[in-house]
Amino acid sequence: xxxAPHFHDExxxxxxxxxxxxxxxxxxxxxxxxxxxxxxxxxxGAKGKKARPGLLKCKDCREQFxxxxxTVFESSKIPLTKWxxxxxxxxxxxxxxxxxxxxxxxxxxxxxAWFMTHRIxxxxxxxxxxxxxxxxxxxxxxxxxxxxxxxxxxKPKGLPLNAKPAPQVFSLIERxxxxxxxxxxxxxxxxxxxxxxxxxxxxxxxxxxxxxFQFMNHESVDHSKHEWARGDVHTNTxxxxxxxxxxxxxxxxxxxxxxxxxxxxxxxDFRMNTxxxxxxxxxxxxxxxxxxxxxxxxxxxxxxxxxQ
Length: 308
Ligand SMILES: [Zn+2]
What we know:
It is a single chain. By secondary structure, the chain is an alpha/beta fold. The chain has a domain at 139-255. It contains eight helices and eight strands. Helix 3 packs across helix 4 (110-124) and helix 4 packs across helix 7.
């Protein structure tokens, strides 16, 4: 697996990424034109400088580009071999992989590893035009959870003893389809649900008062009466997911700042949506992530050249 040439040779890495991103030939990120653009590689570039490997010139808009332009890998001096390796590691580790581990395995600084993993998580996010889950005849499971390392820290300071802390994470899964998880920050469950699930869906939840609102077709099980499943009415899929996420939180990441929680959730959602049970293997999962590196907006500054 790790002896594949694209993990060791920059040219092979670039060819590998080009084949995944451009199955029908290079696509110009400036104008969208597809096809036989000019390879500048090896020719004299601007001002007599040698064109860098992988550089192309668009036959239509005449702009230059390479396979990483417009992707989360752009403007970094990190070799592509390392990007591919980091993506593979993050895609194949069920409970995630820490920046410390990436730093040691890839021989990059911790800071670089941190930026790389967050950029890859950005690629794992669903595309901006992904609509709400569910639909007519579809069942959507919804559940929420509170993240805490131990029962002692379960309740934030200032809450009365009998008060339940506000849930931090809300997840929806379309049975037989995708999961979508989110940090609730100041949104409430109702708002998130109506935004991310189609109202024609059949909704299944537990008996929490958070779901006491009008949803066209809603069934629930009452955990307080030890009812965990009634036929296919249960939230077991999401409880299983929360359990993997929390094991990742405690075992791999130790700490996740709430600022970045949505990115970690995107990572776990991505692996769930491409899980082995659906017939996706580690190599295919990595390819799916690499196809998604394009067009993702970065919410932090691009990696500075000094980060290696
Ligand atoms: Zn173009």
